[in-house]
Design a protein that fits this description.
three-stranded antiparallel beta sheet; alpha+beta; 443 residues; five-stranded antiparallel beta sheet
């Protein structure tokens, strides 16, 4: 007998969409909003009513910035003194939760026989260590990659606006429930976007507004209604497009997205959760980008404070480090579901159009600032001792405040020497080949 949760699409005499299995969700409802909606309907900024968790926790202002720095200071005793310590602490927690992933080796292993300690613009960093390049699992690499991606996005948007073009930002979300797994919902969001951005209707809609390109970012939170993966998309439109055609493009996006979501059996999309509004400047465009700026809204979404009681992956990781076993389980589910997914995706040819060189996340994580001053070198064994004692962030702080002399005296006080021990082998050394005794063949 067919399970009740799979009957939604079969009752209507159609099979589920290809590429997405039926999901246990609310019953399918007719699409309420039509093309005749007033223009302002597609510039609403009201909150999502099906689990998007868009209200700040009790005691927090709705206009408080959601930056990692402010969040770190408010939730972690480590971060109150140093954001770097907070990120390193979270990376160690992620390594314990995901023992078979590259994050376990990130920042803890020397590539060569020594590790450089370098200084640039007052900030110290290690050179010659392994990095994982994961924007999903590693807070340290995510911060480094996110900052570089933010620069790319802002460079593109600045250049586009300088030509007289306009920028519009859209948010695409789906109904979600606590019993749905993260990997299912992530794949659903990706499938719906592929369906939107393909076919003759998409080509006609693009042509009407002369769409230059788009940049989309994948983000998720976890709250009382479970996982909430969603997309932030920036649309670049050329100069001279009238408001009516732009409004029709917004109507097209919402109705097409809602139709695919409904056909998949996930329920009805909420108009209140849909956003499509103009960014008059890269750094400011009303409430939507006041917290991060247009580029930061895209590239650091997975590190923001979740709203309405929900938790971002960063918060799950912090709670797991405090002993929350359920948070650790949720972070593991999230990491496995999002591993390999692209956090930021540019439409074809957009980077080339604005002269932006395409680089992988791993390559950005490995990049080191040029023209940095080399303060000193740590032998491999000394660096291992620093890592084992969880003192990497402290060492960099000493390097920034007092230079290499302060670092060396501090390490000596801790009993960490710079003498590299000679390699030892358990195997007995073999004599040269000409001194070895051959087999006795006299008998």
């Amino acid at each position: 007998m067919t399970p009740p949760r799979t009957l939604q699409t079969r009752r209507e005499g159609r099979s589920p969409q290809k590429g997405l299995q039926p999901c246990p969700a609310a019953s399918v409802l007719p699409l309420a909003v039509r093309s005749t909606a007033t223009p302002r309907s597609f510039f609403l900024t009201s909150e999502c009513d099906h689990g998007a968790h868009n209200g700040f926790p009790a005691g927090k202002s709705a206009t408080s910035p959601g930056s990692l720095d402010r969040y770190a200071s408010s939730v972690s005793p480590l971060a109150g003194n140093n954001l770097r310590r907070f990120r390193y602490h979270l990376r160690s927690t992620a390594a314990k939760i995901m023992p078979c992933e590259r994050v376990c080796q990130c920042g803890t292993r020397a590539i060569l026989g020594h590790v450089d300690v370098r200084l640039q613009e007052g900030r110290a960093f290690f050179a010659g260590i392994e990095t994982c390049g994961s924007v999903w699992m590693c807070p340290v690499c995510a911060a480094k990659i996110g900052e570089r991606r933010r620069r790319e996005v802002e460079l593109c948007l600045d250049a586009h606006i300088a030509t007289g073009g306009s920028v519009y930002m859209g948010t695409f979300t789906i109904p979600h429930h606590v019993f749905q797994r993260a990997d299912y919902l992530r794949k659903a969001v990706a499938l719906f976007w592929r369906k939107i951005a393909s076919g003759a209707p998409w080509q006609r809609a693009k042509g009407r507004v002369g769409l230059v390109g788009s940049i989309r970012a994948l983000e998720t939170t976890y709250g009382s209604n479970g996982w909430h993966p969603h997309l932030h998309v920036v649309f670049l439109l050329p100069a001279g497009i009238d408001d009516e055609r732009i409004r029709e493009f917004g109507v097209f996006l919402y109705e097409r997205w809602a139709r695919f979501v409904q056909k998949a059996g996930l329920g009805k999309c909420s108009l209140g959760a849909f956003r499509f509004e103009q960014a008059h400047k890269v750094k400011e465009a009303g409430d939507y980008i006041a917290k991060w700026g247009c580029g930061e809204e895209l590239t650091k979404g997975h590190m923001k404070r979740a709203r309405g009681g929900g938790r971002s992956p960063l918060q799950l990781l912090d709670d797991a480090g405090r002993g929350d076993a359920e948070a650790a389980r949720l972070f593991r589910e999230y990491a496995e579901a999002f591993k390999g997914a692209r956090q930021l995706t540019w439409s074809h040819g957009l980077k080339k159009r604005f002269g932006i060189f395409d680089q992988k996340d791993e390559e950005l994580a490995e990049q080191e600032p040029i023209n940095a001053e080399v303060l000193g070198q740590l032998p491999r064994q000394a660096f291992k001792q620093v890592v084992a004692r969880h003192l990497t962030a402290h060492l960099l702080e000493y390097a920034e405040s007092g230079g290499w002399a302060t670092v060396t005296s501090w390490l000596l006080r801790l009993g960490i020497t710079f003498d590299e021990p000679a390699p030892t082998s358990r195997r007995k050394a073999r004599p040269p080949w000409h001194e070895r005794e051959g087999p006795d063949i006299s008998t």
